[in-house]
Amino acid sequence: MKPLLSAKFLQTLAPWRNAPAWHIAFSGGLDSTVLLHLLANLAKTETLPTLSAVHVHHGLQAAADAWPGHCQSVCDALGVPLRVMCVQVRAGASLERAARDARYQAFSDVVGAGEVLLIGQHRDDQAETLLFRLLRGAGVQGLAAMPMQRALASGHLLRPLLGSSRAQLQAYAEEHQLTWVEDPSNADPRFSRNYLRHRVFPRLTERWPQAVASLARAAEHLSEAQGLLDELACLDLQTAEQPSPVPWLPLPSLALAPLCALSDARQRNALRHWLSPLTRLPDSDHWAGWYSLRDARGDAQPVWHLAGGELHRCGERIWWLPVAWSDFSDAAVSWPDPQSPLALPGNGQLRLSGRAPGGPLVIRYRQGGEVIDVPGRGRRDLKRLLNESGLPGFVRGRLPLLYQGEQLLGVPSLTGLWNTAWNAAPGDWQLHWMPQTCDQGLS
């Protein structure tokens, strides 16, 4: 049996030795206890980042109330500070998934810029993950199972024991007389992973003794294949990531024509890669939404609804709108002091430069039928002016309109300010809008 503290283990840790801090996800179970002990002992002979442990208390069972105390005693004995975080697990169809989501949110809150969270998941966990996802019909990305490392918040997540078996961890714990807690829920076959672990894998290994190692190795091959697909996606996206016609708009977007030139499979691959940091990806049955959006008429404005937001098509470009984009109020807002910037609820900030028009000013949003005096062009329909500007349709309802009474005085737009000469000569003032989370203003 290979020793856990091997050259491969140290090699896995090597790229992260200069991180500001290492946080160890410490449940108190066998896996995390071994990882904590390994790293605490390694710190005695090696120069490592500052070590600390994080215990997430889900509050799902009475037995778990004793685990923070156990974890504290283990950490005290090893000289590693411990942080206990209590989380609320949302009710849902999958308790396993809800608990995992709450746990990883807590981890994200702990990990700072460049810091590393280390998790004790091992080779048996990898094999179970692969088989579980295979039974759910996952694609290559899902079957690549758990990566050795990935981004987490502004830091990184690392699984340094992924090449070690559960039997190796057990042997190490017994050799060093470690104590750990046993989660009663781990024996409940109603949970899918437990069913695989206790009912399926014993039968598999009875017939194929190397089943766990073989499945873990298959996950490595699939991870390599996913890496190649990611490289292809980056190449395909290069031509689609053309400069936006409205660079002030803080939303990801792509040119549609380069995507349409690809095969359907390459389109899906490129979009998965582009959407993966933005939303939970759809399963195979829901890609019909993409085809409907892609194949819509040029003057249509179709929408593809996804878990984290919406994909809009405007002309020959697609735009990603996160859920938060629609969270704004279209109620009128008075502007008592136009010399000071005005915060618009959920819609960024508005400011006025130059000599402000006299009288009470109010910000309203489009209702339809608005007209405005354009210097040199007379009274013009606002809808026609917006069509000329090429402004995406989903932005038009958020454009702040400056009113004095029932008189529309000004609108920030791509082509400059359209304003009347009400108490000001044209050009004496301008309206500037900085949309929510936007780094550049619109004037």
UniProtKB/TrEMBL annotation:
Keywords in alphabetical order, please: ATP-binding, Cytoplasm, Ligase, Nucleotide-binding, tRNA processing
Top EC class, one word:
ligase
Output the superkingdom of the source species. Bacteria
Residues in domain Lysidine-tRNA(Ile) synthetase C-terminal? 361-433
GO terms of biological process kind: tRNA modification
At which positions is ATP bound?
S27, G28, G29, L30, D31, S32
| EC numbers on record | 6.3.4.19
Q: Name one Pfam family in it.
A: TilS_C
Gene Ontology MF terms: ATP binding; tRNA(Ile)-lysidine synthase activity
The compartments listed are: Cytoplasm
The Swiss-Prot or TrEMBL record describes its family as follows: Belongs to the tRNA(Ile)-lysidine synthase family.
Q: What does this protein do?
A: Ligates lysine onto the cytidine present at position 34 of the AUA codon-specific tRNA(Ile) that contains the anticodon CAU, in an ATP-dependent manner. Cytidine is converted to lysidine, thus changing the amino acid specificity of the tRNA from methionine to isoleucine.
HAMAP family for this protein: tRNA_Ile_lys_synt
Name under which the protein is recorded: tRNA(Ile)-lysidine synthase
Q: What is the lineage of its organism?
A: Bacteria, Pseudomonadati, Pseudomonadota, Gammaproteobacteria, Pseudomonadales
Gene name, Swiss-Prot/TrEMBL: tilS
